[in-house]
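Help! Submission page says 'invalid entity' but I think these are all valid:
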Amino acid sequence: DVQLVESGGGLVKPGRSLRLSCAVSGFTFSTYTMNWVRQAPGKGLEWVSSISGRSSYIYYADSVRGRFTITRDNARNSLFLQMDNLRAEDTAIYYCVREDTAVLKQAFAYWGQGTRVIVSS
Amino acid sequence: DIQMTQSPSTLSASVGDRVTITCRASQTIHSGLAWYRQRPGKAPNLVIFKASTLGSGVPSRFSGSGSGTEFTLTISGLQPDDFATYYCQQYNVYPYSFGQGTQLEIK
């Protein structure tokens, strides 16, 4: 079974950094594009970033570009999101998401349970 | 960037009803459109992809249609589990984008 387990969330002050991790199992991690999607309290879904299987293609939402960095370690079956210079508006649940097939640009078939990030002084 | 607009924002219906949610893209996305259902406190799950293909394990009472810029999600014979929030998403071009959501409530 496909499993995605996020960790690393917590309470952090504005301007500080946090690193989210997503441990995956049940599929060949290196062949799938992975994404981070977030959801602010009481709000809708916002795509944050994508990284292709071999890290050849990386994309960011305008709202996080220059502050967040997505990476992956295929040997460790892990996805990461380094979040720097955090702002109050980054407060959200962050989901690790796998696309449906190994072809580029597919729907989001598998979601983790999410990890909560709160940015507050 | 492509803007996704869903309507209505809220929809009230009863068990057994047939409902339709609409999603419009600000420019063509061909068939790169997905629908997700999100129950309170849970992660979203994929309902429809490629505009009209049912996700794995999704009941046949769900159907999707459309291409280009206008899409619909129809649920025929609402079940209690279906009362949730639904989001459309375009994945045709980066940056990916979601609609603002449609909350389906019990009447």
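Support: the input was valid. A stray whitespace character was the problem, and the output above is from the cleaned input. The mean pLDDT of chain A is 97.
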